[in-house]
């Protein structure tokens, strides 16, 4: 009897397995053969690679423009063609309106953020937040960025004077971006260079830790939103929501009681909370095209927490990897220094918004760093309306999850000749050597990263300050190896460089 029961159980498992993993075969769509239970994420589950690397490795396992994969038991389509990606993100955006990540404001208030929201809720919030990142408002935030830059310089000078000549620039960049984000988005003054145990640094380190439950929580947000609710993993995110909520509410209360005004993101969110619109908007949207949305306190907390999580590590990655490549490529380093000096001479040596904007080669360097090391290496989209892939019989059905490996695109020689070579000149205006549709470090279309300009200016200020004040040298000739955890790319063992003061 036991053997019969066991046989029936095994037969049932086999049938269910064949049915679940036969999803793409029944639809006549090419697919990558999955593993039992793991689907196509065996390397990720076994912690041999991060999800970003898993997606990139799947990208290179096929030649199809769109290929079926399995995120455990969940079928998804991996987009491998740059023109098709452009359609998904931009041209046919109405068919792929949502990201398909966890979004349930009732159980998890933090998911009421711009990244996760869907449909009309996302559209209205996006329209109201867009004016917060205009060039004029970013220019007003420069003093906060400069203050953090000064502290970074002092920190490195002290380390050098105390005999430290080899420094992990990934750690330095993380401290810098942490404080810039906290100042701009939370309106608070923290100094991670003196106190790296501040509450924001603790929050960041927990999110990026190797703890299994934290990694599971972050993964299910993207891969299995329904499982996120079923397992009540929102309890983890709600802990940060409550912690940050308390800080923000006290900050807002202090500003209102003492009539304090700052040129930062939180001040603008306070305006949106009161009136649903910003004073002196520069977004170009007419009142008819944008519905006023008065933000709730939960929505304010959700946005600030989003920009802290999304902006801190991603910008740090760009800075640290950029410095790594500059020390690996002395000719590029020298060209960049000449570009920086030329612009600073016109501005009496002052590093400001205008002088940074005139550094054309710096812009190319940052673009190339963002290509080779995309801070957001994977994009999610959900099909919201059936879509037929041009020149094929494949129809993407409603609710199908789509995966776009930015890392895969950015390192594909079909789109970027000699992709492992750090070549800023490929982005020189008028002589571009790449496929523009394949270059999407901040996403593309209506859901492109809203904080893109803030991230770029913060990264540029850091690089300029470091190169004008210090001499950076590589310890060895090597490529960066990525760690096997974290949502974004993380250099295994950090990015250690030899550093000394510049002699003028």
From TrEMBL:
Predominant location category: endoplasmic reticulum
A GO MF term: oxidoreductase activity, acting on paired donors, with incorporation or reduction of molecular oxygen
Lineage: Eukaryota, Metazoa, Ecdysozoa, Arthropoda, Hexapoda
Single GO cellular component term: endoplasmic reticulum membrane
PROSITE patterns hit by this protein: CYTOCHROME_P450
Similarity comment: Belongs to the cytochrome P450 family.
Subcellular location: Endoplasmic reticulum membrane; Microsome membrane
UniProt keyword annotations, A-Z: Endoplasmic reticulum, Heme, Iron, Membrane, Metal-binding, Microsome, Monooxygenase, Oxidoreductase
Binding residue positions for heme: 449
Reported cofactor(s): heme
Organism, as annotated: Hermetia illucens
Protein name per the record: Cytochrome P450
UniProt membrane topology term: Peripheral membrane protein
A Pfam family matched in the record: p450
Superkingdom of this protein's organism: Eukaryota
UniProt entry tagged with the keyword Oxidoreductase: yes
């Amino acid at each position: 009897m036991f053997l019969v029961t066991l046989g029936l159980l095994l037969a049932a498992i086999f049938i269910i397995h064949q049915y679940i993993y036969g999803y793409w075969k029944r639809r006549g769509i090419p697919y990558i053969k999955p593993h039992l239970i793991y689907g196509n994420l065996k390397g990720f589950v076994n912690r041999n690679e991060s999800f970003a690397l898993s997606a990139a490795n799947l990208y290179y396992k096929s030649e199809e423009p769109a290929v079926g994969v399995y995120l455990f038991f969940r079928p998804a389509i991996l987009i491998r063609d740059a023109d098709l990606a452009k359609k998904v993100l931009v041209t046919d955006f109405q068919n792929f309106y949502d990201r398909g990540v966890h979004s349930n404001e009732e159980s998890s208030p933090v998911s009421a953020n711009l990244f996760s929201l869907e449909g009309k809720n996302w559209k209205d919030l996006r329209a109201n937040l867009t004016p917060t990142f205009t060039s004029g408002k970013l220019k007003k935030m420069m003093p906060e960025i400069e203050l953090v830059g000064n502290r970074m310089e002092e920190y490195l000078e002290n380390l050098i004077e105390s005999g430290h000549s080899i420094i992990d620039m990934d750690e330095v960049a993380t401290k810098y971006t942490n404080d810039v984000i906290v100042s701009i988005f939370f309106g608070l003054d923290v100094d991670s260079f003196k106190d790296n145990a501040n509450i924001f640094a603790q929050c960041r380190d927990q999110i990026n830790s190797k703890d299994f439950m934290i990694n599971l929580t972050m993964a299910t947000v993207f891969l299995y939103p329904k499982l996120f609710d079923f397992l009540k993993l929102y309890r983890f995110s709600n802990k940060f929501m409550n912690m940050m909520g308390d800080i923000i509410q006290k900050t807002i209360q202090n500003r209102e009681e003492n009539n304090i005004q700052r040129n930062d993101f939180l001040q603008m969110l306070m305006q949106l909370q009161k009136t649903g619109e910003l004073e002196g908007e520069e977004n170009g949207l007419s009142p008819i095209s944008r519905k006023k949305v008065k933000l709730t306190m939960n929505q304010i907390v959700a946005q600030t927490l989003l920009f802290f999580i999304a902006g801190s590590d991603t910008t740090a990655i760009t800075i640290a990897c950029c410095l790594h490549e500059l020390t690996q490529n002395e000719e590029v380093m020298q060209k960049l220094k000449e570009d920086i000096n030329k612009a600073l001479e016109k501005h009496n040596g002052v590093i400001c918004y205008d002088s940074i904007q005139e550094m054309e080669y710096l812009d190319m360097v940052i673009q190339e760093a963002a290509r080779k090391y995309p801070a957001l290496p994977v994009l999610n989209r959900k099909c919201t309306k059936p879509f037929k892939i041009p020149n094929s019989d494949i129809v993407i059905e409603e609710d199908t999850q789509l995966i776009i490996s930015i890392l895969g695109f950015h390192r594909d020689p079909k789109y970027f000749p000699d992709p492992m070579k750090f070549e800023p000149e490929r982005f020189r205006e008028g002589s571009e050597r790449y496929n523009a549709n394949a270059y999407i470090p901040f996403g593309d279309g209506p859901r492109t990263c809203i904080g893109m300009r803030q991230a770029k200016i913060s990264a540029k200020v850091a690089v300029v300050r470091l190169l004008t004040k210090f001499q950076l040298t590589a310890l060895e000739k090597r490529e960066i190896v990525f760690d096997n955890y974290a949502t974004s790319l993380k250099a295994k063992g950090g990015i250690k460089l030899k550093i000394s003061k510049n002699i003028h």
